[in-house]
Structures are given as structure tokens and as C-alpha cells.
TrEMBL record:
EC number in record: 3.6.5.2
Membrane-spanning segments: none
Protein known as: small monomeric GTPase
Organism: Oncorhynchus mykiss (Rainbow trout)
Cofactor(s) needed: Mg(2+)
Lineage of the species this protein comes from: Eukaryota, Metazoa, Chordata, Craniata, Vertebrata
SMART domains: RAB (SM00175), RAN (SM00176), RAS (SM00173), RHO (SM00174)
Membrane topology note: Lipid-anchor
């Protein structure tokens, strides 16, 4: 069962890839934990090194900002149990490496049977935004269906005086690629709910599928600007 290879349900479950024997893990294509009939959604987080992928995934699964991070090597798995409209779901987040040398042997694994993709850039680093095209190309090049939901995340919004990527520019890009846009900060505790919303939004979309195995996602275009508070606990679906 897939969940045995990953972190603790509901916790941060972080397992540094340095210690992860990836090849020994069980069938990652499984999207049902048969013992408890819990659906598992595999969401990968992609983007340049240093944009904050690890911090965002840590914020979502662990509820805090890590004091210190190191460049991710290979992949770190984190998992969180959520409940959407009465259904218990495991969101399995794959925190990928941004540095080419730490990811090249893993890329195939990232994209295999992925259910949703989170593209991250750093709002204070224009190059990380410009490189999104390359990340999207990589994703498309790995036979990820266009029906797999994707979202765009501009991180580090707390660094207000250093912002290089205007919101309008990011919105246009998101629109052009049929993605929702989230501008947020993994660091700012006030943004915690918005970070949750990124993953909850995807989980809601995936839940709406009749069957993940058939990947019959109905495309839903649009975007979300999360400058205002979104209460995921109340609505459970921020989009
Ligand atoms: N100010 C600020 N700093 C952040 C934020 N998110 C991450 N950082 C910092 O950015 C640096 C990189 O964060 P990581 O999460 O390790 O970046 P990454 O994208 O996982 O990098 P790779 O693993 O190399 O791909 C760290 O020093 C974090 O503390 C944020 O929202 N605001
Ligand atoms: Mg990382």
C-alpha cells in the first residue's frame, strides 16, 4: 500500500530523500489505500531551486515554517489527511528538487501517475518566473495529461519591498496556461490558510472526479487570488 512508504498520516511525515530508498518503495501508482478505502492524491510541487517548495509543503503538512532548509535531493514525501464533504482523503505531496543535479534521476518518478501539479516561482526573483515555461515543458514532455489540474504559486509575498513579478503579469501567464494563481508566503503565519487553500483546492477538484484511475477530470478554468482570507475549514473548497 502506497501510504506505507510515506510519512505519518496527518503529520509532516517528512522523510529526507538522502535516507529514502526510493527504488524499494511500493507501487506508487496506487491511488487507493485499500485497508481503509482512502483515496490518495499525488500532488507534485515543481519549480526553481530556492523558490520555497519545501517551505510551502512543510507549511501545509506541518502547519509551520521550517527554520532551516537544505536543497532537496531527489524528493521529500509529505502527507496530510484531509476531509472533504465527509470523505477522508490523503494528500500525498511530492516536494521535488529544483536543482538539476539533484533531480535528474528522479524526474520520471515525479510525473508518473501524478494527479495534480503545483508550479512555484519566487515573486522576488523574475528568473524563477521566466523559468516556469521550462518547467511546464518538462511536465508536458512527461505525458502528463492536460486534464491533470495545475496551479501556479507565487511565493515569498512577505518580502513586499523586493517583489519583481507583478501580479498582473503572473495572472496573464496563469490565464494563458489555464491555471489558478495563488500569491502567498510560506513564511508569514497569516498566510497559512492560503497555503492550505492551494492544496485543498486541488484536492476538491480531484475529489470531484468520478474515478482517479480513469482520470476523467472535467477541466475547470479560472484563477484564484488569495489576498483575502479564505476559510478552508468552513467551505472545504477554496475555489
Ligand atoms: N521570506 C521568505 N523566505 C522564504 C519563503 N519560503 C521559503 N523561504 C526561504 O527560501 C529559501 C529556500 O526555501 P526552500 O523551501 O528550501 O526552497 P526549495 O524550492 O525547496 O529549494 P530546492 O529544494 O533547492 O528546490 C529558504 O532560505 C527559506 O527560508 C517565504 O515565503 N518567505
Ligand atoms: Mg526543497
Amino acid at each position: 500500500m502506497a501510504n506505507e512508504s510515506f510519512g505519518n498520516e496527518g503529520g509532516t511525515g517528512s522523510r529526507n530523500s538522502r535516507n529514502t530508498n526510493f527504488t524499494s518503495s511500493v507501487d506508487l501508482s496506487t491511488s487507493l489505500d485499500s485497508s481503509v478505502q482512502t483515496r490518495i492524491f499525488k500532488i507534485i510541487v515543481i519549480g526553481d531551486s530556492n523558490v520555497g517548495k519545501t517551505c510551502l509543503t512543510f507549511r501545509f503538512t506541518g502547519g509551520s515554517f521550517p527554520e532551516k532548509t537544505e536543497a532537496t535531493i531527489g524528493v521529500d514525501f509529505r502527507e496530510k489527511a484531509v476531509e472533504i464533504e465527509g470523505e477522508k482523503i490523503k494528500v500525498q505531496v511530492w516536494d521535488t528538487a529544483g536543482q538539476e543535479r539533484f533531480r535528474k534521476s528522479m524526474v520520471e518518478h515525479y510525473y508518473r501517475n501524478v494527479h495534480a501539479v503545483v508550479f512555484v516561482y519566487d515573486v522576488t526573483k523574475m528568473a524563477s518566473f521566466q523559468n516556469l515555461k521550462t518547467w511546464i515543458q518538462e511536465c508536458n514532455g512527461h505525458r502528463v495529461s492536460p486534464t491533470v489540474p495545475r496551479v501556479l504559486v507565487g511565493n515569498k509575498c512577505d518580502l513586499v519591498s523586493h517583489i519583481q513579478v507583478p501580479s498582473n503579469t503572473a495572472l496573464k501567464f496563469a490565464d494563458a496556461h489555464n491555471m489558478l494563481l495563488f500569491e502567498t508566503s510560506a513564511k508569514d503565519p497569516k498566510e497559512s490558510q492560503n497555503v492550505d487553500s492551494i492544496f485543498m483546492c486541488l484536492a476538491c477538484r480531484l475529489k470531484a472526479q468520478k474515478s482517479l484511475l480513469y482520470r476523467d477530470v472535467e477541466r475547470e478554468d479560472g484563477r484564484v487570488r488569495l489576498s483575502q482570507e479564505t476559510d478552508v475549514n468552513k467551505s472545504n473548497c477554496p475555489c
